[in-house]
Amino acid sequence: MKTIIADGGRFLVLIMWLNFAPQSDSCPAKCVCYSEPRPTVACQQQGLFSIPTEIPVRSQRIFLQSNKLTVVRSTSFSSCQNLTVLWLYSNNISHIEAGAFYGLEKLEELDIGDNGNLRTISPTAFRGLTKLHTLHLHRCGLSELPVGVFRGMFSLQYLYLQDNNILTLHDDTFVDLANLTYLYLHNNKIKIVTDNMFRGLINLDRLLLHQNRVIFVQPRAFGDLAKLKSLFLFFNNLTVLTGETMDPLSTLQYLRLNGNQWICDCRARTLWEWFKRFKGSSSELECDVPDFLAGKDLKRLKSEDLEGCVETPQIQTNLYTSKAQSGKFPSTENPQGDTIPRCCLGDNDKSSILSGKSRQITHNPLKEKENMSKTKFKDPERTKNDTQNKQNDGPLGTLSNTLDKPLENMNPNLIDSLESSTTSSKKKKKCSKKPRSDTHCIKGRGATLEVLRFLLIPTIWISLAMS
């Protein structure tokens, strides 16, 4: 009996030793493997061009950052079912095969940031990572995120998407991320924050949108962000932000809106009123227009400062990149949109909204046309006989209706003008290019038509006689 107990004790010791002893025999080349505090394979900064194939199956952490990896294959980690942490940042990864992370149901942290050639991600790249709480996708050259890329990632809490080239986000991109608390989107190229862009983020605590190109935030964009505490929108191209847009942010504590080009007239009133109710910390909102308020903090203005509507010509917009933190470049877009807000119209004009480009009073086009007809084509000699010789609307445009007018009544001076009306095209262009006056050119054309009439009438008579 004692022998059986002794053998059992030795067997137990052997099992414990196998569990905790370093697995140096199965550790990949150029890597360091250890078991405490968790089974780990550390291969960072080893100049690796491919992911090692002999990774121990019981590894829980794999560090492959700062190498020269170019692709993550579907079989790279298929045997590592216990993996909880995977670092692949700062490589040259340009492609992640579909199913590369399939089966890693215990994975909690995935860092594939700082892979500038990645640029695109498969819609199913992260499918099945239901326990993932941290995902790094910063500095990957991403211009968009595919529809449904975060589907089913119910445990995600931290999402890093900063320093990419993202232009827009599809509606409901984050709809499954009810537990997300930190969303980093700064230093991208987002222009419009749409109503459904952040739908579903009911527990979001921090939203970083600074250093983008945001020109407009739609009214219901923050509708689900009732628990948001920090909102950074500084260094964008905002000119107007309404108080109604900000109303859902009932728990907001830190707000940064500096570095925009605020229009401080009636369009800013609702935001000004919202700040009267806001109890948190905020940066200054420097007015850009009107000129007499330029540089002043919108929050500190008086109510009378926000009356009326100011002229808002196209404002230069700021573009911020990771290399240049500030700088002004002309933009072809109108940040204020294409319409004048109703507060800018008089009481009699609020039934219609004019074009945003027609803010100044313009001349009546009918009146301008009338003035042109009075001055540009004025012919003293012809106006005397306007009531007697009305012009028809035929192809020649100015032939008289009285073709049977006696030839002897024709002005003999018109015949002298025949030579000038039938000269080379060079002389004609000279008149049209550098006219002595409009009257002179009209006279010349009138003479030409009179001569045509002089030549046409005998032909008509001959035709009538022969018939």
TrEMBL record:
Q: Where is the composition biased (Basic residues)?
A: 425-434
A Gene Ontology molecular function term of the record? ganglioside GT1b binding
Q: Which GO terms describe its biological process?
A: positive regulation of Rho protein signal transduction
Where is the segment annotated Disordered? 321-439
Basic and acidic residues: bias regions:
365-387
The record's listing under SMART domains reads:
LRR_TYP (SM00369)
Example GO CC term: the record gives: external side of plasma membrane
- Major localization class: membrane
Task: Tell me if Plastid is a UniProt keyword of this record.
Answer: no
Q: How does it sit in the membrane?
A: Lipid-anchor
Gene3D superfamilies, per the entry:
Ribonuclease Inhibitor (3.80.10.10)
Alphabetical keyword list: Cell membrane, Cell projection, Glycoprotein, Leucine-rich repeat, Lipoprotein, Membrane, Receptor, Repeat, Signal
Provide the protein's localization. Answer: Cell membrane; Cell projection; Membrane raft; Membrane
| Pfam families in alphabetical order | LRR_8
Highest taxon of the source?
A: Eukaryota
Q: Where is the composition biased (Polar residues)?
A: 321-337, 351-363, 388-403
Q: Residues of the signal sequence?
A: 1-26
Lyase recorded as keyword: no
Family listed: Belongs to the Nogo receptor family.
Name of the featured protein: Reticulon 4 receptor
Per the UniProt record, the lineage of the source organism begins with:
Eukaryota, Metazoa, Chordata, Craniata, Vertebrata
